[in-house]
Amino acid sequence: MRNKKPPFEITKTILDAIAEIAELVGHVNAGMAQSMTPMLRRSNRIRTIHSSLAIEQNRLSLEQVTAVLSGKRVIAPPKDIEEVKNAYEIYEMLEILDPYSVDDLLRAHGVMTRGILEESGCFRSRPVGVVDKQGNILHFGTLPDYVPTSVMELLDWTRESDFHMLIKSCVFHYELELIHPFADGNGRMGRLWHTLLLAQWKPLFAWLPVESIIHDRQEEYYRAINRSNAEAESTAFIEFMLSAIQEALMEAVMSHSGAKMNTEQQRRYRIERFLEKHEVITNADVRELFGVSSATANRILAKMTEEGRIQKIRLGKSWGYRNSL
Question: Which residues, 6+ apart, have CB-to-CB distance to 267 below 8 Å?
């Protein structure tokens, strides 16, 4: 059925994440005009490329990627070097790509895999199974004869759906991986197109290195994909990707103030933002926010209580926490 909604659910976690991302975008936009220099844009783009390729086992370090893109000689496998050059070229084309065009999708794949893949710039001609590091088959991609129609239907749904772009971009990313339309480069293309779709909503996403957060949380990324595969819907993947986008935006907010958030600071920041909208926060809320155990949630809340940032209060038979101010 054409334009049928891919399977996913809108959870409270997703709605809360969208609201927080919208606020964070406002904070970043407020400071970006002065801080987003050409040098910083280039630095962020290099981080994006290094991270997206590293997820796919490209062995070049961030310093080597920077050197390659500066025209310096780097001793490394030619394929890895070519991947870096190709990726930089296509990310530089983001402003002219139509995120709903199958021709532009194929064009982008052609640039991304030029000189390193036989079936470059076209859909794969053979069946493929997606395997993990141990060689276990996670799922089979769509049969080759059905790939073009499946991709066009996904693009059409993404263009015509009334869902928020934050949701649609995550769904597209996941569904493209599920279809696995290319002989190689599916992960790179999924992340590239996710960025392209987000940039259609807010241009700052063209320069925000969300991929670096995905790289840092690579095991979670694959767990979210595998969980969505097992549940036959992309809800878990959407929740993960929104949390990665939140983290990238929080990092940008801190960078504008000359600081960088570590994990503890990120958690504290998100709890404080939560309490701007809610009177209290509970252990269950913290578990849902960060995907941590009850014991870890208790430690986070206890530390913030010791610091005087929040106040512990009785909620019936359990405990809650509110702003201490």
Answer: 289, 290, 300
Q: Read off the pLDDT band of 80 (50, 70, 90).
A: very high
> Tokens for 190?
């999924």
Which 3-state string (H, E, C) describes the chain?
Answer: CCCCCCCCCCCHHHHHHHHHHHHHHHHHHHHHHHHCCHHHHHHHHHHHHHHHHHHCCCCCCHHHHHHHHCCCCCCCCHHHHHHHHHHHHHHCCHHHCCCCCHHHHHHHHHHHCCCCCCCCCCCCCCCCEEECCCCCEEEECCCHHHHHHHHHHHHHHHHHCCCCHHHHHHHHHHHHHHHCCCCCCHHHHHHHHHHHHHHHHCHHHHCCCHHHHHHHCHHHHHHHHHHHHHHCCCHHHHHHHHHHHHHHHHHHHHHHCCCCCCHHHHHHHHHHHHHHHCCCECHHHHHHHHCCCHHHHHHHHHHHHHCCCEEEEEECCEEEEEECC
Pick 12-256's CATH classification: 3.30.450.40, 1.10.3290.10, 1.20.120.140, 1.10.1200.120. 1.10.3290.10
**Domain map (residue ranges) of the chain:** 12-256, 263-323
Q: How far apart are CA 124 and CA 104, in angstroms?
A: 16
Query: Is the pLDDT higher at 269 or at 228?
Result: 228
> Half-sphere exposure (CA, 13 Å, Cβ side) for 143?
2
| Local confidence band at 38 (pLDDT 50, 70, 90 cut-offs) | confident
**Domain 263-323 class, CATH top level:** mainly alpha
Q: Average pLDDT for residues 4-30, to the nearest whole number?
A: 89
98-112 residue pLDDT tens:
999 999 999 999 999
